[in-house]
Amino acid sequence: MPDDLLLPGQRIARGVCRLLRSHDFACLEEVVPKPGLRVDVMAMGPKGEIWVIECKSSRADYQSDRKWQGYLEWCDRFFWAVPPDFPSEILPVGEGAGLIVADDYGGEIVTMAGEVPLAGARRKAMTLKFARMAALRHHALRDPGLL
Amino acid sequence: MPDDLLLPGQRIARGVCRLLRSHDFACLEEVVPKPGLRVDVMAMGPKGEIWVIECKSSRADYQSDRKWQGYLEWCDRFFWAVPPDFPSEILPVGEGAGLIVADDYGGEIVTMAGEVPLAGARRKAMTLKFARMAALRHHALRDPGLL
């Protein structure tokens, strides 16, 4: 998608996905682990690790999100991703959450998140959901004739 | 991809993927379960079922493939997919393999394959491989700037 059609959070997500790709994580944007909860980026590592990354483009964007602790139970590690000029001192990093600084083109893991491994049944269910969602989205892109 | 750039087997694969999508299976083409073995279509069902489909466009195409029994250990069900004018009597359907008749646009399951469930460890490993491959391919299509 051309850069100027992306919203600020989506531009950060693009940089985050490029960063995580370089760490051998496969990323999917806008994943819904359960009804009413949407995560900006879900990433799957080579051993099946599941990371969730929430992208916040500005202080206001962050302050309007009161549900972030709900994300923790859907991943092994949770990160905030913010642009370089974000006032990162307002983020609850250090309560287990990690920090990624990213722009449109890439980023850096500034603080590694703590790990709280998912229970086996939930990891299995999330891996399957991720697999099917990724394949269905890929299918829709490569076969525009798909109904 | 425009129709006329697809090889005959890829056109059948497209129809197969559309068919299986209608059965709520998410499809990925050209999956390599292990080095040296490539399956035309791998499909993942809502309960994590893994189906493998080999597409054969002609008698010669089928007769050049001596490795099909090697596919069985990578799926719960195995199908041949052939065009309507294929001499399907030459296929070893009924030895557990199923039969799909497909063209460029869709298809039909003519004979349901027998089920031989994967062992848990292999299913887990294949689901993870499928998930990461689908997400990486999707990423490459939606972010052409990805290196």
TrEMBL record, chains A, B:
SUPFAM superfamilies: Restriction endonuclease-like. It comes from the Bacteria. InterPro entries: MmcB-like (IPR009394), Restrct_endonuc-II-like (IPR011335), tRNA_endonuc-like_dom_sf (IPR011856). Pfam families: MmcB-like. One of its GO terms (molecular function) is nucleic acid binding. Coiled coil: none annotated. This is DNA repair protein MmcB-related protein.
